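INTERNAL AUDIT FORM
Audit reference: QA-55
Scope: verify that the stored structure record matches its stored sequence.
Auditor: D.O.
Record contents follow.
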Amino acid sequence: MRGVWLLAVLWLAGCQHVAPPPLVSGEIRDLHSGQVLTAQELLTRLAKPQQVIIGEQHDNNDHHAVQLWLLQALGEQRPQGSLLLEMLTPDQQPKVDHVRHAAAPPTDLPAALTWQDGWDWNLYGPIVRFALTQPYPLLAANLDNGEIRAFYRQPPALTGVRSNAPSVKATLLEQISDSHCGLLPESQMPAMLSVQQQRDRRMAERLLAAPTPALLLAGAWHARKDVGVPLHALDLGAARAPTVLMLAEQGAEVTVAMADYVWYTPATPAQDYCAQMRKQFGQ
């Protein structure tokens, strides 16, 4: 089995041609210039920065197909330094490292990684499997559950002018309320805001500490330049904000304040998550 695993690694490492982009229709735009880009032009631009964040809609299959292609293609443009995932927590990092250095892949990879059920393995599995065959590290970028509970009980002070701006906090509070369908008691909002911003702060810390070029995959709100990880990176002393590519469904509004590039993908049928949440809340 060791030979099979090694052959897979060597085969993937030896693929030097750039694979064609995934069959995902939609427009790619440079938000600074307004220029419409091809996938290959976007790839060339994303190969230059030392830190790149790709914002996603977690349940959109097209977004994960684009992410996998970009990860593979960027590695063929120049050596990749690291991949960071919002979907991995610090307590999973030793398991990730163990699998990376194992003589053969485990028969049940999600179990070996204690992959969390909230992240659909069918969507994230191809990205994780590919990353684990590469020479660069796959890194956790999120908080673990114990940290989340502690931050919820006693929100810590957050340093930094940008991330503490009233407009940033107001925008995030509105998003938190909307994403919970207006069902959260007002008393819980400060704690929820703290957890959201501590997640952003952790992702920024991990991204800045990661081997470069570093790529972070995270939800759209974490990726946003006006309220998310890029603001925290600047508050932590980064000379410049990470470059942001936002993956968004057609019809969404993505501005230059939010991202550097946007890749619009076809809209998918809307899920009524609020109906499910109201049922949980007994409403």
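Auditor finding: record pair retrieved intact. The longest strand covers residues 243-249.
Action required: none
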